[in-house]
């Protein structure tokens, strides 16, 4: 039996594309193993799927000063040794990396052991972890046409992001029932990423009375970001995080407000949901979400509302505009060519496996 090691972690966005590949990998006869951090979000998500999971030491590599910059390199070195030992034991035919800093020691160790490695870059420009990994990669998958110019031509392949197939199986009726909603009003879904977004949450709650005049609102607000004062508000439900019922909530939604993480927006694109993107500000990130959102706006998929411009008035105007023009956004998304990413990536894995 062929064997593959998947790696990636730190956020749900570094794990869910790996999960999306699992059914096809199993159909292709792969025995799947996963290397992640000791206690990252990836551990819980993967162990729930009964996939062998191996934790290694993981340190973050930063571009800015932080006292941990003095200790984290030693964590990376330790992780490299642990990854190398695991790869020697597992002897995979191929490694697939979704990124995040835990993937760096795994990819470097795979290179040393001459194991073919495919990495996936979700954002417009490669992050620091993937920049380190690119020289070690056999192939590099990309989400955006603009990304290809930043990658070695002989390695880069435009694939899009693997989308969990269960997202397409949602039931609008079940989603409305789960939230206690009726079919009389359209549904607005707010997604702040796996950790939630305090600024998006605040803006949404600031215009909630106005929103509820026209919409029913599903608010995925992130861990520890619930507002108990809004419990039992008619037409409004809030959750820290939703997993099993997410496909039904997507099916029930008419428009979406979201951060602009690459995996999240690729799911929105695949589901053809009109959307408002509020990318993480340049002050709080390397600006990748801004570039992602600009690309989607340019292609007609999304309404871009920069975090710096986020206000109650601007958000309400954006919601009204997107709902009014929802058919235009849907038509633009239908024309996107990135609809067969899983098959494309699995073909790369098969052709690279030794």
What would you say this structure looks like, in words?
One of its GO terms (biological process) is peptidoglycan biosynthetic process. Its main location: membrane. This protein has 354 residues and is an alpha/beta fold. The protein has two domains: 2-161 and 339-352, Rossmann fold; 166-334, Glycogen Phosphorylase B (Rossmann fold). 40% of the residues lie in helices and 16% in strands. It is built from 14 helices and 13 strands. The strands form two sheets. Strands 3-2-1-4-5-6-7 form a seven-stranded parallel beta sheet, with helices on both faces. Strands 10-9-8-11-12-13 form a six-stranded parallel beta sheet, with helices on both faces. α1 crosses α14 (341-352) and α3 (72-90) crosses α4. The longest helix is centred in the N-terminal third of the chain and has 19 residues, at 72-90. The chain starts with a strand and ends with a helix.
**Secondary-structure element pattern, one letter each:** EHEHEHEHEHEEHEHHEEHEHEHEHHH
CATH homology superfamily name of the largest domain: Glycogen Phosphorylase B
Coarse shape: globular
Spatial arrangement of strands, main beta sheet: 3-2-1-4-5-6-7
Radius of gyration: 20 Å
Family: Belongs to the glycosyltransferase 28 family. MurG subfamily.
Protein name: UDP-N-acetylglucosamine--N-acetylmuramyl-(pentapeptide) pyrophosphoryl-undecaprenol N-acetylglucosamine transferase
Function: Cell wall formation. Catalyzes the transfer of a GlcNAc subunit on undecaprenyl-pyrophosphoryl-MurNAc-pentapeptide (lipid intermediate I) to form undecaprenyl-pyrophosphoryl-MurNAc-(pentapeptide)GlcNAc (lipid intermediate II).
InterPro entries: GlcNAc_MurG, Glyco_trans_28_C, GlycoTrans_28_N
